[in-house]
Design goal:
The protein is rod-shaped and about 95 Å long. Helix 1 runs parallel beside helix 3, helix 1 runs antiparallel to helix 4 and helix 2 runs parallel beside helix 3. By secondary structure, the protein is α+β, with helices and mostly antiparallel strands.
Length: 296
């Protein structure tokens, strides 16, 4: 944000011409508090919005699942759209867009202004795309999932981190399942639990997303009341896909509901006296729900 404000100073002040601040008509749509917008524009332009010659600027603010956005309509300068992750960033960027539009507009009749040097125009072109950086969103994910493979049901706890830019996101998740108890005879049993790390790559379209999924982990078998009470560990590797529905809860949190279908590339089996007692499933369906919290 410091770099952005420095660029604003170069763009607005570099021309050496005082312009009247615009007369603002703001429709915030209850999405953001836009009361500070006028003061930020005044600070950039150094003008007076009570001047009858000041240009009229209309601003409309809205919110969606990706954040907040604003539309700026200026007489003679068309319409521009600004997007941001937070209201503070949006107000700063709207002030910059309005200041640049006023700088590029014709000066009032009573003012005599020399044309801006080429250097200022070059800086303006570099600054205008800056609001797109707000598309970068980093989030911490905490959730749970329910596995429904043939024959039994298992629970899972998931913690992960995701990074999204525009329509593409990637993530890393760590998970651990509840123990799977397998009875072996009347008094003996094996407790099996699994832990894994998964990577996802997703393409988003509105609230929906489709993802590729890859995971690697281990299955740990612990025997109880067996003649040879020696545990065993076996590797697990799986590939699959994920379908996601995401809904914003607040400006910085969201709810993620997803379904994973994964097939094991490397499976695990635990034997007792040469007979299979527990085997991982070649394919499994997981239904999960996560809460996402944006990381500053």
């Amino acid at each position: 944000m410091t770099a952005l404000r420095l660029a604003v100073a170069v763009v607005v002040c570099g021309a050496g011409v005082a312009h009247a601040s615009p007369r603002l008509v703001i429709d915030d749509g209850a999405a953001c508090d836009a009361s500070a917008l006028g003061a930020r524009v005044d600070a950039l332009t150094g003008g007076d919005r009570d001047d009858a010659r000041a240009p009229l600027v209309r601003v409309a603010i809205a919110r969606d699942e990706r954040g907040v956005s604003g539309r700026v309509a200026t007489d003679g300068a068309g319409e521009r759209v600004v997007e941001a992750a937070t209201c503070d960033d949006l107000i700063d960027q709207l002030a910059l867009v309005i200041a640049v539009a006023i700088r590029d507009a014709p000066a009032p009749a009573a003012a005599v202004a020399p044309p801006p040097p080429p250097r200022v125009a070059a800086v303006a072109r570099a600054v205008e795309p800056a609001p797109r950086a707000a598309d970068d969103v980093r989030a911490l994910a905490v959730g749970t999932a329910l596995s429904v493979p043939p024959g039994d049901v298992a629970g899972e706890l998931v913690v992960g981190v995701r990074v999204r830019r525009a329509r593409v996101s990637v993530g890393v998740e760590a998970s651990a399942t509840t123990p799977d108890r397998v009875d072996v005879g009347a008094m003996s049993r094996i407790d099996v639990w699994t832990a894994a790390v998964a990577a996802t790559a997703c393409l988003h379209a509105g609230p929906l997303a489709g993802c590729a999924l890859a995971s690697a982990g281990v299955a740990d078998g612990s025997p109880h009341a067996l003649a040879a009470e020696r545990g065993a560990v076996a590797p697990l590797v799986a590939l699959g896909g994920r379908v996601v529905y995401e809904r914003a809860l607040t400006a910085r949190t969201a709810l993620d509901v997803h379904a994973d279908l994964a097939g094991e590339v490397v499976a695990a089996t635990f034997d007792v006296d040469g007979m299979p007692a527990w085997s991982s499933h070649r394919a499994a369906l997981w239904l999960g729900i996560d809460v996402l919290a944006q990381i500053p």
